[in-house]
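Incident log, structure service

09:12 report received: a user says their structure output differs between two submissions of the same chain.
09:20 pulled the input from the user's history:
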Amino acid sequence: MPLLLILSGLAVAEPDLSSMAEELTALRLQVERADSELSALRARTESEARSLLDQRAELDVLLQREALRLQVTQELSAKASAEATQANQERSALTPVLLSNLATLRAQTEAGLPYQVDGRVEVIDALRAGLEAGTLDPRQATTRLWQHLEDELKLAEDSGMSRQVVEWPEGRVLSKVAHLGLVEAYCQAEAPAGPRYGHARQVDGAWTFVPLEGDASRAVADLFSSFERSIHSGPFTLPLRQVQR
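09:34 re-ran on a clean worker, output below:
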């Protein structure tokens, strides 16, 4: 009798294998889902890590480029600063020399033959004003001064005619002026009785045009007639001033 009871008790305590299998299956599915999620998370993490590494590599390249650009910029800046310093030193040394030469040239132009003096002096004054104001670089001023000197040399070698206001004994008169280089100048002024002619001479240290008469006047009239016909060469008998030595 006791043995039967024990066996009967064992039969009653037997577990529900079907339920346990279902629970085990559910747990296995959860583990598989968790493992799948873990694998996906690991893959995303590795992908993000690789992306961060790539970004870091790109940033390193950019930093190297910026460092190189900064180095080049600093070198160029130092070179520009050195060149600016040298230019300022050259400007400081060259400007006084140019101003002195311009002053000498201006004085010579004003004291020389009275042909287009105002326009020639205006060029010199413009150069001086630019240098003194600092708006004209000394090297540019030197180039322009050289060009002006070439014009002066050409003027000294050529002969020609233009209109300008000239000093007559009685005042300033708009006249035609013919020049033979920068040695002699003659003028033709209109008058009620017809053209009259003059010869540039220095009187008491100042230039004026002295009226001509007789053969001298007719010779200068022939000169103007030739210039008006674009004849700049030929035999002319002209009055000459006495050059002071």
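09:41 both user submissions now match this output. Likely a transient worker issue. Closing.
09:42 reviewer note: Confidence is low (pLDDT under 50) at residues 1-7. The longest helix spans residues 17-111.
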